[in-house]
Design goal:
The chain is of the alpha+beta class. The protein is built from 5 helices and 6 strands; from the N terminus they run E-E-E-E-E-H-H-E-H-H-H. The strands form 2 sheets. The chain has a 3-stranded antiparallel β-sheet, with no helix packed on it.
Length: 165
Amino acid sequence: MHCPFCRHTDSRVVDSRTSDDGASIRRRRQCPNCHRRFTTVETASLSVVKRSGATEPFSREKIVNGVRKACQGRPVGDDDLALLAQKVEETLRSAGSAEIDAYEIGLAILGPLRELDEVAYLRFASVYQAFDSLDDFESAIAVLRAEREQNERAAASDGPGASAR
């Protein structure tokens, strides 16, 4: 690491701390030549491999913009979208790969979006999974209903009397 003051080619790490919920490391450094201190922030890069084979840096903003279209007219705020994008990034980073296929990003979006808003989920899924007919919509709605009923049954069995055993 070059010193930003004297351009010396080396520096010593004085202190290291994680920041941004562990997504980056903040290092306090000191130059052995001029003895001045400076801070660096290190993050692991995450690249997206597009269908064309081209790669580009991962962007939460692209996720927010893509999902925002599906959420148009729905009770979903900017904070909700930012949180969704953060969840998606955390999911992708936890896979441990530096390069992620664009298709995998879409899959990672579907789960958190379904939890956020079912209508927005259907809109996004219809484009992402290329729904061709009403049957595709009906199948997706049937899955959502079945999951909702299963969750409601599970919540009812965990009701107030369930824990008093």
